[in-house]
Amino acid sequence: MDGPGKMVGVGQPVPIFPDLLVESIVDSCPDGARSIVVIDGADAALPVDFATRTAEHARSRGRPAAVVDLHDYVRPASIRFEYSRTDELSYRTLWFDYDAVAREVIAPLRPGGRGHFLPRLWDETTDRSARAHSIEAPPNQIVLIAGPMLLGRGLDVDVSVQLRLSEGALRRRTDPADHWTCTALLEYYDGLDYSSGSAERPDFVVRWDHPDRPALERR
């Protein structure tokens, strides 16, 4: 990025058909092994919808696939709202329980893990445990974790995808009630410095202002 909110690619973006993008992501998952994919994107980018579409394609190819919505891994309201319901720093650092994602979803699917993962941990609406049952993962299971600010968290994943919105698109497509999150999101993504190595560049950086006409940024 070049300054706050200025989304700039590292090379000329290459248009790609949405179906080909989905196919390329599935093809990047190791054959015959459990695979973890993160679909990183602000809520305005609808990352869960895209992850669901990708999972459907994987299943059509004979691979079991499931989607974990990061909003099912929020922290309790007493933590999220400790400094107010619209605190930008809390949204960036406390809102989502990335450690629990690593513990309950990713680690169990790695070699030596228990082989089953927890699809939901916390119900954001009721602010109670989701009381979900763990899901057994076949040897070639794909799990797609979708939601905001997943990059740079040290998560052990096989494929990473960023659905990148420009500042204008982010503000335009974000629900007015959630506009307070835009500044937090822009600051977070500005802090991902791929060039210095402080954050690993995603496998797929997708310009997502027009989901029907996405473009891949070249490395």
Task: Produce the secondary structure layout.
Elements: E1 14-15, H1 18-27, E2 35-40, H2 47-60, E3 65-69, H3 77-80, H4 88-93, H5 98-106, E4 116-117, E5 122-123, E6 128-129, E7 135-136, E8 142-147, E9 159-164, H6 167-173, H7 180-190, E10 204-207, E11 215-216
Parallel strand pairs: 2-8, 2-9, 3-8, 9-10
Antiparallel strand pairs: 1-11, 4-7, 5-6, 10-11
Helix pairs in contact: 1-2
Number of strands: 11
User: What percent strand?
Assistant: 15-25%
End-to-end Cα distance, whole Å, is 14 Å
SS class: alpha/beta
Q: What sequence of helices (H) and strands (E) makes up the elements? A: EHEHEHHHEEEEEEHHEE
Percentage of residues assigned to helices: 25-40%
Tell me the number of helical segments per DSSP (H or I, 4 or more residues long).
7
Q: Which descriptor suits the 3D outline?
A: globular
Strand order of the largest sheet: 1-11-10-9-2-8-3
Overall pLDDT level = 92
The major beta sheet can be summarized as: 7 strands, mixed
| Radius of gyration, in angstroms, nearest whole number | 17 Å
**Uncertain runs:** 1-10
Description:
There is one protein chain. The protein has 219 residues and is α/β, with parallel strands linked by helices. It has helices spanning 18-27, 47-60, 77-80, 88-93, 98-106, 167-173, 180-190; strands spanning 14-15, 35-40, 65-69, 116-117, 122-123, 128-129, 135-136, 142-147, 159-164, 204-207, 215-216. A seven-stranded mixed beta sheet has the order 1-11-10-9-2-8-3, with helices on one face. Strands 4-7 form a two-stranded antiparallel ribbon. A hairpin with a 4-residue loop joins β5 (122-123) and β6. α1 packs across α2. The longest helix is centred in the first third of the chain and has 14 residues, at 47-60.
